[in-house]
Recover the amino acids of this structure.
């Protein structure tokens, strides 16, 4: 069911919209977590490191594609807020053309060059083949992932954040079952976990598609809606491409850092893999708050309710900062225990590195939540270029640590790479957001 975010108390709407998204994102993380848990426990530390070594490359490719999918749906939120159903449907139809083309291009490219990229990343020889076997399957099935991201983004653009959660619950349970089937019963290695993820994503995409056809008359496309429109594609790509590049720039920084981490050995790779999984869990509410604000700002911009945008972003900022305090204490007090989901208790040295990483990163979580809030707000308002430039700033921060500090200070330098990137991004995003809001108030003086 559609939900209008342009009426009612901003904070309540934001929180109620965010809650299903938090749960949904946690279940989405459960895809990769299930792979990591089962691989680490059932196959071993080397297999865990093999999956972990693909994380930044996965983020580079899939993050770019997912960012574009997210950008494609922001004009839909704006058209929905403006009650412009014709342009909403035309945008939906043309977004399917974009995703189909993107799937073909990225699938062919990754099939050809993945092994060479892993070698350039200095992936340790003992885990290189496992890393390739895992990530090549993920890339082969990226069409299912992109279709799900687009369709769930359409639902969110219309204010429905609950339905994607229900489908992710189903898909996550299926993913766990297939992990055990492929790895434990069929004796497959890391590629079994990858196939489980791809199949589960495909099921969630089909469920979203069927639900949209069944429950959303506003998105039932007619003959004229399918007309190829450069105007709609240009508007969507004008937001989507910078968003995709922003994800990729962030991922490129992670790849550079991962290459430096790889030189420190498989144990450090495993520690960073486990710590990153824990951190993904803790930071999901922050990321979800940002996703919510993209939809909230998009709908309210379409309705020309600029005061609601400013109020909602301000209130969400306070909520996010309060949450970072709780996340820090969870990271410090329970982070190592959560890491036991991925590692055996006998791996005491690796667990010690996990705790150290989470302590340092957790202290800087307030900087991270500001990135999520202000970057997504800018994107929802149509200012996608500054968000992309912030990705360049993050890249510079991570690359500086990787090139200048990891070789000297080793693992300790790795722990400060994320905070360095967060500082760099905030230096740009905060002033740009406030300047952009003032610009909107000046451009649209007859606003609410």
């Amino acid at each position: 069911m559609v939900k209008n975010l342009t009426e009612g108390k901003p904070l309540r709407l934001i929180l109620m919209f965010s809650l299903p998204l938090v749960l949904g994102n946690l279940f989405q993380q459960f895809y990769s977590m299930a792979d990591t848990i089962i691989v680490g426990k059932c196959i071993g530390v080397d297999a865990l490191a093999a999956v972990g070594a693909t994380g930044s490359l996965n983020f580079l490719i899939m993050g770019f594609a997912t960012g574009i999918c997210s950008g494609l749906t922001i004009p839909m939120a704006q058209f929905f807020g403006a009650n412009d159903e014709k342009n909403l449907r035309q945008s939906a139809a043309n977004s399917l053309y974009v995703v189909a083309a993107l799937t073909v291009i990225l699938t062919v490219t990754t099939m050809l060059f993945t092994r060479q990229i892993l070698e350039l990343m200095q992936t340790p020889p003992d885990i290189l083949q496992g890393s390739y076997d895992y990530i090549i399957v993920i890339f082969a099935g990226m069409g299912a992932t992109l279709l799900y991201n687009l369709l769930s983004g359409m639902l969110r653009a219309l204010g429905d954040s609950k339905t994607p959660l229900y489908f992710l619950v189903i898909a996550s349970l299926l993913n766990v079952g297939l992990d055990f089937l492929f790895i434990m019963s069929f004796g497959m290695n890391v590629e079994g976990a990858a196939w489980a993820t791809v199949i589960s994503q495909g099921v969630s995409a089909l469920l979203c598609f069927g639900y949209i056809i069944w429950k959303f008359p506003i998105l039932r496309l007619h003959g004229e809606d399918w007309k190829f429109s450069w105007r709609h594609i240009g508007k969507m790509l004008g937001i989507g491409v910078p968003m995709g590049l922003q994800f990729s720039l962030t991922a490129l920084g992670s790849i550079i850092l991962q290459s430096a981490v790889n030189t420190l050995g498989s144990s450090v790779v495993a520690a960073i893999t486990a710590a990153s999984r824990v951190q993904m869990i803790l930071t999901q509410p922050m990321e979800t708050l940002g996703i919510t604000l993209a939809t909230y700002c998009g709908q309210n911009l379409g309705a020309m309710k600029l005061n609601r945008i400013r109020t909602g972003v301000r209130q969400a900022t306070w909520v996010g900062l309060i949450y970072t305090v709780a996340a820090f204490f969870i990271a410090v007090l329970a982070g190592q225990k959560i890491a036991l989901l991925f590692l055996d208790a006998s791996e005491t040295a690796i667990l010690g590195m996990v705790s150290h990483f989470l302590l340092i990163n957790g202290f800087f979580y307030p900087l991270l939540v500001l990135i999520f809030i202000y970057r997504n707000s800018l994107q929802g308002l149509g200012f996608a270029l500054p968000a992309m430039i912030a990705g360049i700033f993050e890249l510079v921060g991570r690359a500086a640590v990787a090139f200048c500090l990891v070789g000297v200070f080793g693992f300790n330098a790795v722990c400060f790479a994320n905070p360095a990137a967060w500082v760099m991004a905030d230096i740009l995003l905060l002033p740009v957001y406030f300047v952009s809001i003032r610009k909107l108030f000046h451009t649209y003086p007859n606003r609410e």
In short: Residues 10-443 form one domain. The chain is about 85% helix and 0% strand. The two ends are 26 Å apart (CA to CA).
